[in-house]
């Protein structure tokens, strides 16, 4: 006497479930396996214990991590994961056909693929982030190098070329100017070597003065003002009678080194423009005022005023600095004579001080 394979119950709404077989079919498979073992020498099907299967799955989960540490390359890691997947499938079929051992291929394949693709995607992201930071750092180095050259050797070169074409200074003085240019270029070369080895807390001015950016901003601005007005080769400085300077201090929490460098270069550039273009200037003011959580730094002169509307490199750099500070820049003529060059921004607490 035998019992039916299917029992009707209210817990099962249908009598036929997906993948369901009758008991007689199951017994037929079992008999077929026994006969194949006897007649064809085929191994009986077997499987590991649950603990062994868990260890096997975890082992394949760690494979992509180990491959990532060994390859140190996104593409090599992906290739290694593909090879590992092929090895996994091959091992599974070999163990099944030769020894009749049923091992968990699907979960091992899944964790291997997920970890491999996930780690590769993360490696792609980190690699792209590293490249972007390298590009940004190089771009900053190029821009900063040009600023240093622009405010130093290029000013000397422009002065020498202008007088060489005009032929209004002695030959010996012209030679001295180009010797000075040679020395300034060499000094910049030495300074950039310090930058390359990590000495990023200093600023080289066109006058050759090196400033420590750890000092308060108002002290740095005083140094920039004094050293720039003492530079030779700026003919308009020779007519100056009144020099006014005053810079309100700023709490260090509102500025980082990069911002200090940019602000000092802005002041140097504005003063150099006075020395080059403000014909007949008698008075120059450089003031920094703090009010209502906003700082304004401006240079004002009573010279001939703006002669050209063209936007030079210095103006572009000043606008870029204002954008980084989330502030404003303006350079306008004054009535009846003179020019004002102003940078203003709202003080915000900086996150890092690099």
What is the percentage of strand-forming residues? 5-15%
* Distinct helical segment count: 9
Number of strands: 9
Q: What is the rounded distance between the termini?
A: 88 Å
Helices and strands, in N-to-C order?
HEHHEHHHEEHEHEEHEE
Q: How helix-rich are the residues, as a percent range? A: 55-70%
Average pLDDT taken over every residue: 79
The shape is: elongated
How do the strands of the widest beta sheet line up side by side? 5-6-7-9-8
- Unreliable sequence segments: none
What can be said about the biggest beta sheet? Answer: 5 strands, mixed
Structural class: alpha/beta
Alpha-carbon Rg, integer? 38 Å
Tell me what you see in this structure.
- This protein is an alpha/beta fold and 354 residues long.
- It has a domain at 46-129.
- The protein is built from nine helices and nine strands.
- The chain has helices spanning 23-39, 50-71, 74-99, 105-151, 153-166, 171-196, 217-229, 257-277, 313-324; strands spanning 46-47, 101-102, 202-204, 210-212, 242-247, 283-291, 294-301, 328-333, 339-346.
- A five-stranded mixed beta sheet has the order 5-6-7-9-8. It has a two-stranded parallel sheet with strand order 1-2. A two-stranded antiparallel sheet has the order 3-4.
- The relative contact order is 0.06.
């Amino acid at each position: 006497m035998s019992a039916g394979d299917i029992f009707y119950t209210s817990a099962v709404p249908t009598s036929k479930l997906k993948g369901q077989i009758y008991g007689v079919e199951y017994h037929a498979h079992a008999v077929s396996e026994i006969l194949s073992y006897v007649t064809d020498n085929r191994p009986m099907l077997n499987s590991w214990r649950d603990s062994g299967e868990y260890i096997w799955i975890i082992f394949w989960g760690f494979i992509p991590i180990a491959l990532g540490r060994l390859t140190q390359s996104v593409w090599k890691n992906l290739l290694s994961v593909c090879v590992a997947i092929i090895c996994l499938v091959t091992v599974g079929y070999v163990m099944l056909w030769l020894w009749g051992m049923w091992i968990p291929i699907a979960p091992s394949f899944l964790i291997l693929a997920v970890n491999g693709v996930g780690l590769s995607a993360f490696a792609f992201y980190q690699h792209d982030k590293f490249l972007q930071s390298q590009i940004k750092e190089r771009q900053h180095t190029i821009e900063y190098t040009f600023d240093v050259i622009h405010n130093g050797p290029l000013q000397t070169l422009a002065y020498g070329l202008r007088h060489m074409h005009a032929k209004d200074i002695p030959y010996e003085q012209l030679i001295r100017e180009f010797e000075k240019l040679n020395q300034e270029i060499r000094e910049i070369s030495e300074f950039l070597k310090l930058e390359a080895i990590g000495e990023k807390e200093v600023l080289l001015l066109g006058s050759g003065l090196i400033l420590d950016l750890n000092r308060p901003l108002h002290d740095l601005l005083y140094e920039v003002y004094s050293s720039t007005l003492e530079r030779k080769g700026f003919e308009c400085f020779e007519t100056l009678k009144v020099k006014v300077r005053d810079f309100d201090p700023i709490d260090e929490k509102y500025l980082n080194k990069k911002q200090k460098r940019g602000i000092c270069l802005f002041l140097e550039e504005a003063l150099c423009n006075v020395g080059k273009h403000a014909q007949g200037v008698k008075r120059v003011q450089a003031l920094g005022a703090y009010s209502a959580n906003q700082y304004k730094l401006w240079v004002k002169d009573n010279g001939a005023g703006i002669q050209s509307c063209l936007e030079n490199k210095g103006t572009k750099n000043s606008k870029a600095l204002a954008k980084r500070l989330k502030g404003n820049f303006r350079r306008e003529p004054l009535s009846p004579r003179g020019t004002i060059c102003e940078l203003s921004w709202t003080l915000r607490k900086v996150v890092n001080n690099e």
